[in-house]
Predict the structure.
Amino acid sequence: MAPRDPYDILGVPRHATPEELKAAFRKLASQHHPDKNPNDPGAHDRFKEINAAYQILSDPQRRAAFDRYGHAAEQPGGGGFPGGIHVDAQNLEDLLGSLFGAFGFQKQQNRGDLRKEVTLTFQEAAFGCQRKITYDRAVTCGTCTGSGARTGSKPQSCNACNGRGKVRFTQGLLGLVGERPCSSCQGRGHVVTDPCETCRGVGIVAAEHNLEIGVPPGIEDGATTTVASAGNVTRPGKLPGDLELVFHVEEHPFFKRLKDDVQCAVPISFPAAALGGEVEVPTLEGKAKVRVPPGTQHGTVLRLKGKGIPRRTGGRGDQRVEVLVEVPQHLSEKQRLLLEELAREMGDEVQPQQRTFMEKLKDLFG
């Protein structure tokens, strides 16, 4: 049966941009990954077909050859890649660049490290939690176990280095002899002449990875942690790089964090501020009551001990409750009369905040 058109496999038009190709590939690869479809025997073949289609269309030279010659470009002698030539150093670098490009990072000076943003709610950051995260990474090809060769075939020894993976060179006037990785085989000691149909000779493929992490209590916005060996495999046989997790904490509609304390603002009436009493306030764990002393002024901060953020050294911070004294905007006739009577009763008596204000004016103007 003739192979399917890679554009049809990815479901993109022939004029699709590299970004559209990448988005289609990642969506389909995630949807049809064998790990997500353990009871579907056809998932493995579909995943291989999707990966092979993306390898063709994500490479500008292979895409141009396919657009011109069709599937004949992929056959031996057809002028395409990799059917007509072996996977040499340059072709391997091109394939790796195409694959790593799907993950949004550059292959130059890359050790396989990845970076992922993790968003937490205010409560998750305060008390800690278990989180499952999903991300794409490069892993060893399961079809060829990283060799890059088609099933039933083997890589051939590199002629440039005689299979050593290193070549000798002479440097300087003194003729000092040293060794460096072979550029023909990238230090592998072999070249692939019959590429694996899944990874196209690279030895690594794109795969979705699930990871469960424990978020410690009290983590702050912008904090990072590293998960060893949870990054990309950059070359078959190499250990994966690390995964750096960057945590972002969502803003809370009511609370703000001040180091290990949390702060909220609670409106109270003028009589409650003047007479004092208990006021019900929200906390991170539900409702609680705070005592308001008589004569509490607008902006006063009260404290609820041990209702803040858990400390890593033990104990917890406090909750700060800022008191906002509300002035009524609409008064009934009776309320107006009562306030007028109160005003006459108080006369010119200076209240604490007013007294402080008058003293500052006196100091300022003499």
Notes: The chain has a mean pLDDT of 80. The domain at 1-85 is CATH 1.10.287.110 (Helix Hairpins). The first helix runs from residue 6 to 10.
